[in-house]
Automatic annotation (TrEMBL):
Keywords: DNA-binding, Endonuclease, Hydrolase, Nuclease, Restriction system. It comes from Ferrimonas sediminicola. One of its GO terms (molecular function) is endonuclease activity. SUPFAM superfamilies: DNA methylase specificity domain. PANTHER family: TYPE I RESTRICTION ENZYME HINDI SPECIFICITY SUBUNIT, TYPE-1 RESTRICTION ENZYME ECOKI SPECIFICITY PROTEIN. Belongs to the type-I restriction system S methylase family. The keyword Nuclease applies. It comes from the Bacteria. InterPro entries: Restrct_endonuc_typeI_TRD (IPR000055), Restrct_endonuc_typeI_TRD_sf (IPR044946), Type-I_RS_S_subunit (IPR052021). Residues 5-191, 317-430 form the Type I restriction modification DNA specificity domain. The lineage of its organism: Bacteria, Pseudomonadati, Pseudomonadota, Gammaproteobacteria, Alteromonadales. Coiled coil: none annotated. This is Restriction endonuclease subunit S. One of its GO terms (biological process) is DNA restriction-modification system.
Amino acid sequence: MSFKLTTLGEYAKVQGGFAYKSKDFEENGLAAVLKIKNVRFGNVDYSDVAYISDDLAKKTEAWATKEGDILISMTGSGPNAPQSLVGRVARVGANEPRAWINQRVGRIVPLNNDEIHPDFLFYVMSQPSSQEFLVQNSSGSANQANISGKVIELLPCPKVGYKESAAIAALVRSFDEKITLNTQTNQTLEQMAQALFKSWFVDFDPVIDNALAAGNPIPEPLAERAALRQALFEGDNPPPRLQEATRQLFPDSFDQHPDLGWIPEGWGGGHFGELTDNIRDSAKPDTIADDEHYVGLEHVDRKSLSLARWGYGRDVDSNKSQFQKGDVLFGKLRPYFHKVCIAPFGGVCSTDILVLRAKNEQLTSFVRLLAFDSGFVEYANMRSTGTRMPRASWKDMAQYPLAIPSIKVLDQFNVFISSILSPLGNNITENVTLATLRDTLLPKLLSGELELSKNKPQLEDVF
């Protein structure tokens, strides 16, 4: 069996975003505005948004998003720049913040909620064939392609009843929800690791706590932090303290370093390059296997230690850099994008990615979290060169000044971080498996080639 085809316009219309003016935008606020750059493939990116006043938000309430909304980028690029492709489709998920859609961001509005499930339309529009249709029917140039609401409404769509569309959508969404859960778990684990790094090596919390317990003086620059720590433990719900064995690894006083200021007693001063090697092993295209993992900047998410996407050697046509499993991949092009991750496998990467490796195993977790730290990324960014395409330099990054902890502290940090981050790889692998299975089944389900009623028990066994 296969479904007959109609057009998207039989089931929905396209609402264009509101034409906010440049003067309307503010740097901070509660009402975020989604521009075309915020509409990613499948999801909305809230990491770089503008804001409007509460008063303007009330006046343009009709353009506020809600859970389940389907958004589409009505301006973008042609196939030459796939990451900014015109016609990208995103779905507003549960527990996401309310936002207001800007011009050239479209919203798919069902004509009748009883005719077809909106998630079914989302999956139809997310198909590569739908993307191809929208690109081919766009106007403008390869660098700025535009699609109208009318073109979007002409998109071919299976003609299917509500009950069947809802069943198909529910099955496919179960794949997405599991992928989302794994991704959120990884994000939580990353945040835990970052918080521990900041507490131990930026704020020096364990040393402050020991100094307070011993009655030792607190240097003036650390006095505010010490007061916060003291109030925290004297409050109604004090957090658990470090285990005694771990606490004793830290000193209970501070020394003044000529370059770094106050640092824990007994810790040394040094530079990032003393702890880390920049690996410069080059690979020519004819030496790279077709199935070799390839990582470009487009694969690395902003502010995420996890690498969730990658390409393969068959797509490589220029020299690349080799890396090993566990290396830090640091995006040096436009470093303010904060594209830093831990390699879950070995492979090759873009030469706009620096391959960083701790000089010994004891330094591994410390180097990884330091390279990801916002202070380090900002240091690299401030020293980048180039106006339109600024690039960070390893020579500058190697000179980043830091307090070097004792070996025992580094060993314990390794133990804790390894425990926290160990599930990342398994979650990424499971997500790849789920996404591959979903993408294999979806075209067959949407076309009617695979009848859900006859295969539902086997498909449900996947979970």
